[in-house]
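Ticket opened by: R.M.
Priority: normal
Category: complex prediction / small molecule

The reporter submitted a protein together with (2E)-Hexenoyl-CoA and asked that the result be attached to this ticket for the collaborator who will pick it up next week. Submitted input follows.
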Amino acid sequence: MIATLLIQHEKLEQLPSGGTLSPYGVHQKHGQITSQALQLLSSQRRQFSNTYISVKLDETSGVAVMKLKRPPVNSLNMELLTEFAINLEKLEIDRGCRGVILTSAVPRIFSAGLDITEMCGKNADHYGEFWRAVQEMWLKLYGSSMVTIAAINGSSPAGGCLMALSCDYRIIANNKKYTIGLNETQLGIVAPFWFKDIITEVIGHRAAERSLQLGMLYSPTDALKIGLVDEVVAEDKVQSTASAVMAQWLTLPDHARQITKSMMRKPSLDRLVTHREADITNFVSYITRDSIQKSLQMYMEMLKKKGR
Ligand SMILES: CCC/C=C/C(=O)SCCNC(=O)CCNC(=O)[C@H](O)C(C)(C)COP(=O)([O-])OP(=O)([O-])OC[C@H]1O[C@@H](n2cnc3c(N)ncnc32)[C@H](O)[C@@H]1OP(=O)([O-])[O-]
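Result attached by the on-call engineer:
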């Protein structure tokens, strides 16, 4: 799978001849094309789609829209997490991309968080590999130098909330049925230190402590009250608001904004990088406990019953 993604990546790079290979075909060298063709090229959108992620990069604005597309609930399995990290890296090194809007292609759901089946009934090696993929997703997203905006067009519990929290700005659709929060304790599990750090950074210590202990899920308006999201807008305005906010953020010079972002986020990123292996060992020893496996299995059964 990784090999396929890398090949798709290669297609978007400059060819040795000076032409560009895009999903629309190979274009001529710049020196040989007319200004009309150049204009057409510059307003082009580049698209790439993998199994669970689709990306559309508008080369004129430098903004990519990245959509999670793993129905029914965009749960984050190993493959999705890997695709996510590769696609984000691809945009990171693309000089034409300055901002990413993260959203969902699945109606009513942003992401149901980590795929619980990746944390149940498997062996220790699998859990270790899975947790590394979760860490990698977070390090790439939280550490991104691009402007990142979460356009939260559905429910966003646990790992879905973590993804949103890792962006620079959060806009959620005004629908009482949608909830967002780090609800891990409701599953009988504990959010790791870096989940705790990031929610604390966003909503402050007191609100984070209450929120994490109780595994609270908030309606959009309650999420706005505690600062978990930055804006609540009508359902059909989520994408346009995200684009408008993005345009505003992109008026700032990249280098000043990027250095400031890095200064704010580096301590948390460094903490995970330093303790990465210990965090994996800790996760594996925790998740393999019989009592934790039982809790997760019961939670999955509850979800399945509810769905029937
Ligand atoms: C230390 C570790 C830190 C952990 C972090 C985490 O993120 S832990 C994650 C914490 N996450 C949560 O606590 C969120 C749990 N999920 C929910 O609360 C709801 O699914 C919903 C509100 C997201 C959508 O409601 P809705 O009524 O639209 O949909 P529905 O409920 O009918 O589900 C449809 C199908 O999807 C299935 N499935 C769902 N989620 C997951 C999952 N995470 N994984 C796998 N599968 C999942 C569900 O079983 C059902 O399968 P079925 O029966 O068709 O085979």
